[in-house]
Amino acid sequence: MRLDDKVGFHPSMKPIQKMYQDGNVAILHGVGYENSPRSHFRSMDIWHTCEPDTLGTEGWLARIVRDLDPDKDNVVTAVSMGPSLFRALVGPGVPVATVENIDSYGMLTGLTPEEKLSRVLSRYRRVYSPAIGTGPVMDYLGQTGRDALEGADILAAAPANYSSNIEYADSPVGKKLKGIAQIHLAGLGSRIFYLDHGGFDTHADQISTHSRLWEEVSRGIQDFFDDLKTHGEADNVVMFLFSEFGRRVQDNGGGTDHGAGGVCLVIGDNVKGGQYGEYPSTREADLEQGDLVPSTDFRSVYTTLVEDWMGLDPTEVVGGTFEKPEFILK
């Protein structure tokens, strides 16, 4: 589907295209930051911590969790869907539940709580020790691991209390989104969910890989929102999709390499659909080392999500004041 003379949806994105036509998808062009390092690890650090100039250790979503639940009354205010805790959710004293597979929670696995805790800590240690240091990491992760286990106990009831006529696609992202729907519909007070879907680093075989990935993501998103709608819960969820950087303008013969300015999507019934920001110029003279030049600071997008959707002061969360695109209905 062509949106104008510059951009359009990939043919595999028909479900998202339909949501766009319904006015529920915002497309944000040229999102990024200055001086992209083209490193996965460094770029994810920047997106996760809102610290483009220094090595941040506290996630932007962790700051939101602290604002939402300052007394730490609910260890499932935020849920990290995956085997490890995403850095956007990492913050001292911020409890986060980590869910690898919601359907296996509550089952007898043969592991004692101590063995489960050891496994959780081992995963976290591998991810965060290189960036933060072993001493601070272990001081922080001891409680984080216990919070994760406590959150697992609370979330164990979610699948049993869930009923739906939506048949999710059998894909990793589809399973994660179904798990999020189960937890959200259980009414446990969870406010933030984070998941990933890898494979978009298409240096090679981009055409077929891109097609498969967007089919999985688009179908999973459609199933998720259809599920919420059947339960009357679609109007209080907003989904934000991003990648840590865009792709190079010039292909490398089979794919594209790491770039700078990219695109973000925001989806939901409370989203003011349309295109936001100028699509960066593709003229060779306007490129920066072969990359699209970012035209929208990613912290501007976060500002809209924090202030207009979450109803919180964004200044401390994003580390400053940024002009926000108005993609949330008021």
Commentary on this structure:
The model is unreliable at 106-112 (pLDDT under 50). The chain has 9 helices and 8 strands. It has a single domain (11-318), classed as Alkaline Phosphatase, subunit A. With 330 residues, the chain is an alpha/beta fold. 38% of the residues lie in helices and 10% in strands. Strands 1, 5, 6, 7 and 8 form a 5-stranded mixed sheet that branches. Strands 3-2-4 form a 3-stranded parallel sheet, with helices on both faces. The chain has helices at residues 14-21, 40-49, 60-68, 113-132, 134-155, 172-185, 206-230, 298-309, 315-318, and strands spanning 25-32, 78-81, 97-99, 192-194, 239-241, 262-267, 274-276, 296-297. The protein is globular.
Compact description:
This protein has 330 residues and is α/β, with parallel strands linked by helices. The chain has helices at 14-21, 40-49, 60-68, 113-132, 134-155, 172-185, 206-230, 298-309, 315-318, and strands spanning 25-32, 78-81, 97-99, 192-194, 239-241, 262-267, 274-276, 296-297. Helix content is 38%, strand content 10%.
**How many H/I helical runs?**
9
Major beta-sheet overview? 5 strands, mixed
**Strand and helix order:** HEHHEEHHHEHEEEEHH
Structural class: alpha/beta
Count of distinct strands:
8
CATH architectural category: 3-Layer(aba) Sandwich
- State the distance separating the first and last CA atoms: 28 Å
Low-confidence stretches: 106-112
Query: What is the share of helical residues?
Result: 25-40%
Shape: globular
Could you name the CATH class? Alpha Beta
Give me the Rg, rounded.
20 Å
Percentage of residues in strands: 5-15%
